């Protein structure tokens, strides 16, 4: 068996990155750790997120992971530098796409949707100082989006109402590009696009992160063990099993083994 790639998130949002990783590296196996019992990370202080991410990382490394993708902006901002300083394996983190957004805007205003923890992080402030280039960057935390995705509610009147409430003020303030700066948010992308209209560009960095991760992986050989992926949750296992096909429609169910962790 090839050593797996480890992917972690506060919950199910990182599955949006898992989808991109599988598209790009279909012969790799993945251990996905969704820390739904501790979700949301976005409302927690940075030191608490960091301690939790170290615990999950220790677990993934014990399972033999060769590379860890921190598929969570909040966890990346709180912990990635400390993780790199402590462990020898490569870590790939998330970063809200502020730089491409400022290059794309025509109105000179971009909106960044992210968690409170991400928006408060020093790393995020550095990103704005380094890349805003005179562009007006407005931000908005959307904890309700995380809750919708954790419950598998990606459409319908309740989800639409929440999406309207969070996104329309940014459009009214002139934003023509919205950065989806949390890995849960891409699951709401079709609904967000419908609400803000076709002229607003939505950006997320899942595919770019998968490409970055691929640069660390020697993709020789095919993983033949079945099922090849382990999807672990600290939350409700039967709920995960039920909504997984909605979140990861291209991953064949036969390729996945689900389990619960009390970590
Ligand atoms: N998916 C996480 C991120 O990218 C955060 C969700 C949460 O608040 O736990 O920031």
User: Globular, elongated, flat, extended or rod-shaped: what is the shape?
Assistant: globular
What are the bound molecules?
D-glutamic acid
What is the domain tally?
Answer: 2
Number of distinct beta strands:
10
Report the total helices: 11
| Biggest sheet details | 6 strands, parallel
Q: Which spans have pLDDT < 50 for at least 5 consecutive residues?
A: none
Decide which structural class fits the backbone: alpha/beta
Percent of residues in beta strands: 15-25%
Shape-level CATH architecture of the largest domain: 3-Layer(aba) Sandwich
For this structure, the CATH topology of the largest domain is Rossmann fold
Word description of this protein:
The protein is an alpha/beta fold and 263 residues long. α9 (189-196) links the parallel β7 (177-180) and β8. The two termini are 25 Å apart. It is 44% helix and 17% strand. α8 (157-172) crosses α9 (189-196). The longest helix is centred in the first third of the chain and has 17 residues, at 46-62. It has 2 domains: 5-93 and 207-260, Rossmann fold (3-Layer(aba) Sandwich), CATH 3.40.50.1860; 98-204, Rossmann fold (3-Layer(aba) Sandwich). Strands 4-3-1-2-9-10 form a 6-stranded parallel beta sheet, with helices on both faces. A 4-stranded parallel beta sheet has the order 6-5-7-8, with helices on both faces. The protein is built from 11 helices and 10 strands. D-glutamic acid binds at residues 9-11, 13, 39-42, 72-74, 94, 115, 118, 146, 182-184.
List keywords for this structure.
Rossmann fold, alpha/beta, 10 strands, binds D-glutamic acid, 6-stranded parallel β-sheet, 2 domains, 263 residues, 11 helices, 4-stranded parallel β-sheet
């Amino acid at each position: 068996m090839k050593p797996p790639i480890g992917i972690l998130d506060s919950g199910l949002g990182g599955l949006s990155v898992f989808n991109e990783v599988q598209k790009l590296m279909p012969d790799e196996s993945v251990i996905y750790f969704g820390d739904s019992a501790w979700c949301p990370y976005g409302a927690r202080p940075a030191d608490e997120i960091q301690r939790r991410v170290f615990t999950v990382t220790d677990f993934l490394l014990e399972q033999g992971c060769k590379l860890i993708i921190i598929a969570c902006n909040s966890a990346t901002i709180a912990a990635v530098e400390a993780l790199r300083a402590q462990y020898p394996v490569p870590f790939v983190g998330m970063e809200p796409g502020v730089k491409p957004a400022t290059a794309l805007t025509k109105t000179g205003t971009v909106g960044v949707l992210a968690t409170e923890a991400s928006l408060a992080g020093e790393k995020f402030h550095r990103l704005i100082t380094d890349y805003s280039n005179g562009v007006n960057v407005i931000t908005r935390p959307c904890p309700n989006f995380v809750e919708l995705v954790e419950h598998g509610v990606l459409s319908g009147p309740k989800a639409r109402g929440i999406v309207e409430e969070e996104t329309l003020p940014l459009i009214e303030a002139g934003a023509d590009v919205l950065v989806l700066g949390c890995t849960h948010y891409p699951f709401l992308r079709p609904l967000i696009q419908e609400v803000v209209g076709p002229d607003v560009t939505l950006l997320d960095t899942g595919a770019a992160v998968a490409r970055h991760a691929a640069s660390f992986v020697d993709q020789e050989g095919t993983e033949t063990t079945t099922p090849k992926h382990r999807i672990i949750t600290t939350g409700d296992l039967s709920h995960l099993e039920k909504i997984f096909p909605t979140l990861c429609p291209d991953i064949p169910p036969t390729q996945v083994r689900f389990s619960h962790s009390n970590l």
